[in-house]
Amino acid sequence: MVFIQEKEQAGISFWDARTTVLYLYIDDNDAVLEKASILGSTILYPKSTTSDYGFAIAEIEDSEGNRISISQIHRS
């Protein structure tokens, strides 16, 4: 999945056609962010939640410069 944005917006990442972002759906954003930080990843965008859509999202950059967006779907 590739999204191309024209400008940066608050709370979301900005990239262009030369940037690849890996999107992962996970069970626990907090646990993944903690482990990623311990292993040397940079948290680009901390977890933010959207009550309108029912998920939490964050973005990290791993030690090799790869960008990874992690989403946690809140199931009722």
Automatic annotation (TrEMBL):
Could you tell me what this protein is called?
A: VOC domain-containing protein
* Gene3D superfamilies with a match to the protein in the record: 2,3-Dihydroxybiphenyl 1,2-Dioxygenase, domain 1
Question: Taxonomy-wise, where does this protein's organism fall, top ranks first?
Answer: Bacteria, Pseudomonadati, Bacteroidota, Flavobacteriia, Flavobacteriales
Q: What InterPro entries would the database entry show?
A: Glyas_Bleomycin-R_OHBP_Dase
